[in-house]
Amino acid sequence: MLEEAGSRMTGYIIIAITILVFSAIAASKIFQARRRSKLLAQPLTRGQRFMLYEKVPLYRRLPEDLKDQLDGLIQIFLSEKTFFGCGGLEVTDEIKLIIAAQACILLLNRTTGIYPRLNTIYIYPQSYVVDAKHHDDFLVIEGKDVRVGESWQNGPVVLAWDSIANAAENSEHGHNVVLHEFAHQLDQEDGDINGVPMLDSLSSLETWSEVMENEYEKLRDIVSTRDHAVLDSYGATDPAEFFAVATEAFFENSWQMQSWCPRLYDEFEKYYKLDPASWK
User: Rounded CA gap, 54 and 212, in Å?
Assistant: First the structure.
């Protein structure tokens, strides 16, 4: 009898703990939703908007209604993500704002968790060197890689500030490390980094897969013959890099991408729910 009573008591304790845990989670989500609602309604200051206008060419092209929407997303991003300077870099409010704005442009017009797997952004003053391993058939080659950005699954984003600043001064080149690395964050929200982000439906997935595979092979062929392409050659590395590179082109070289790769542009327009080629 004592053992039976003890077993029942243990069961009650487990149930009580479970209820407390789920109650805490529910309370946390309610608190987050309320806090986010307030932040979404909070506009940027005139000084912040002027800074983005000066420093982020893509921001200048945004229609006013999208700028208003972007304000709230930026407020949430700045409130919830932590920035760390590396290599002696002092992270200023300007640096945080410029990164947050470009990362949040990818979230406009969409229901999103605002990069739910991401907590931390590390920023180096310039390109940085990391230990790397490369596979060549059965060989594993160890060496050093020079990088301007990384995006880790369930981990941080790493960026080089000089690359971000250079992209602002040379936007016609179509390279944007913030868009690139945060596209990887979107890609891996479903647990895999494979060039297939979370889509609306199975039919969307079928069309997406067909178009992406065809365009990926086209880029690989173009790179092999060294012809000019609207997409950066790095996109021919693998499907995940293709998605990130195509995201850069979709926002930075939207007119060229729409003209040269219309089916690809259409798929990205449906996914991002934006039409950058129509922005003046």
Answer: 34
